[in-house]
Amino acid sequence: MTDIKKQYGLFDTDAPFVAGSQTSEQAAKQIEPDARTLRGIVLAFIRGRGVAGATDEEIQMELQMNPSTERPRRIELVEAHLVEDSARRRPTNSGRQAVVWIAKKRGDL
């Protein structure tokens, strides 16, 4: 994952928080030391799934990551144009349809 960090420089950003919310800002500060690594882990997992991609639930289950930790990391990757909606959906364990996320091809970045 160090190659990913070096290549994209994405992991030099601060964890986002809701402006005006002390608890959100505190949570962002607490996660900050690990956010770079967590984003890298999520990105590597999605890349590893190839065209099959992964839903948020699949990422959470496979990486044993709390939804409140995984989802913001995936959103950061989407905002950085490294991950995108595949336009496909898969059912979650509850039977609801979920977005299948895929990594953008390196040539598309």
Average pLDDT works out at 82
Please, what is the CATH homologous superfamily? Winged helix-like DNA-binding domain superfamily/Winged helix DNA-binding domain
Strand order of the largest sheet: 1-2
Number of strands: 2
CATH top level class name? Mainly Alpha
Question: What's the CATH topology label?
Answer: Arc Repressor Mutant, subunit A
- What low-confidence regions span 5 or more consecutive residues with pLDDT below 50? 1-12
Number of domains: 1
Per CATH, which architecture? Answer: Orthogonal Bundle
Describe the biggest sheet? 2 strands, antiparallel
Instruction: Return Rg in Å.
Output: 14 Å
Could you say which structural class the secondary elements and strand pairing correspond to? alpha+beta
Which strand-content bin applies to the residues? 5-15%
Overall 3D geometry?
globular
Order of helices and strands: HHHHEE
Helical content band: 40-55%
How many helical elements? 4
- State the separation between the terminal residues, measured CA to CA: 18 Å
Present the secondary structure layout.
Blueprint: H1 2-8, H2 22-48, H3 56-63, H4 67-79, E1 83-91, E2 97-103
Antiparallel strand pairs: 1-2
Helix pairs in contact: 2-4, 3-4
Question: Can you describe this structure?
Answer:
There is one protein chain. The protein has four helices and two strands; from the N terminus they run H-H-H-H-E-E. It has 109 residues and is an alpha+beta fold. The chain has a single domain (22-108), classed as Arc Repressor Mutant, subunit A (Orthogonal Bundle), CATH 1.10.10. Helix 3 packs across helix 4 (67-79). The longest helix is centred in the first third of the chain and has 27 residues, at 22-48. The radius of gyration is 14 Å and the shape is globular. The chain starts with a helix and ends in a 6-residue tail after the last strand. Mean pLDDT is 82; it is low at 1-12.
